[in-house]
Amino acid sequence: MLGHRTAVDQARERVGVAQAQAHDAAREASPWIERLSRLGYAAKGTVYVLVGVLAAQAAAGVGGDTTDTRGALAHVLAAPFGQLLLAVIALGLAGYALWCFVQAALDCDDEGSDLHGLAARVGHAGTGVVYVGLVVWAVGLLVGANDGSAAASDPTRDRTAWLMAQPFGAWLVGLAGAIILGVGLHALWQAWRSDLSKRLHLQELSATQRLWVTRIGRAGYAAHGVTLGLIGGFVVVAAVQAQPDEARGLGGALAALAARPEGPGLLGLVAAGLVAYGLFMFVQARYRDVTVS
């Protein structure tokens, strides 16, 4: 028994040493992490503004597209100086993914170690994984490994089909859908009640400017919550019906809005909200506290 306790103590000591070394390394790299994270928020904002603008154009019947973040990157590549712009955005998205992992590992936002804090940190890590995938997609576009037209495929549907093929696949898909719904509800709660300026240094802005920052943030998080709720709902339906084709990602959710009788109006509102969400990411790029603690 004594030997077992000694082994546990040694394991804890090794974990503590590893955590201390990680903190020291992060502090040394802090200036680069800060620059990359700010570029990351700006890159994320660019992508969501483009998704929103394309959806708004589709709602108004003047072109555009109901696409997701991958489709937005394909549109960037097709623009003048597209390769350069896409390379900068890819670097920024990599910086954002890095910041998410740093938040998860070092608890930079002081989330704590209780259940809520651990869930938030796991969420940061999951977001980092998502953006690593988006970076890989962007790099594939740059080197020609991905055909831009392949953005029309839905990765959510593909992942749902893969998960459905696993043991207890329908239950796993249902759980994933419920988690996405939960994240969407949390975004709606943030839009309604959360102090969106909590980690922003807005002292140099006037009271009116701070008010508009908060309004833009609330509109953005509301639209983000609505789209996540739709995505989660489609995934749950796929699980209940055991039909992976029922699952849809962001582009599919926007297309579903557009297909309703009142679709143009709904799509226009959500598109405006997604543009607001992107603009709020620009605010975060400038004013957010990204200190590595």
Notes on the structure:
The chain has 293 residues and is an all-alpha fold. It has one domain. The longest helix is centred in the C-terminal third of the chain and has 35 residues. The chain is globular, with a radius of gyration of 21 Å. The chain starts with a helix and ends in a 6-residue tail after the last helix. 40% of the residues are buried. The mean pLDDT is 88.
Describe what is shown at a glance:
The chain has ten helices and no strands.
Uncertain residue segments? none
- How many distinct beta strands? 0
Count of discrete structural domains: 1
- Cα gyration radius (Å): 21 Å
State the helix count: 10
The major pleated sheet works out as:
none
Shape type = globular
Q: Give the SSE order as H and E letters.
A: HHHHHHHHHH
Distance between the termini: 37 Å
| Approximate strand percentage | under 5%
* Helix coverage percent: over 70%
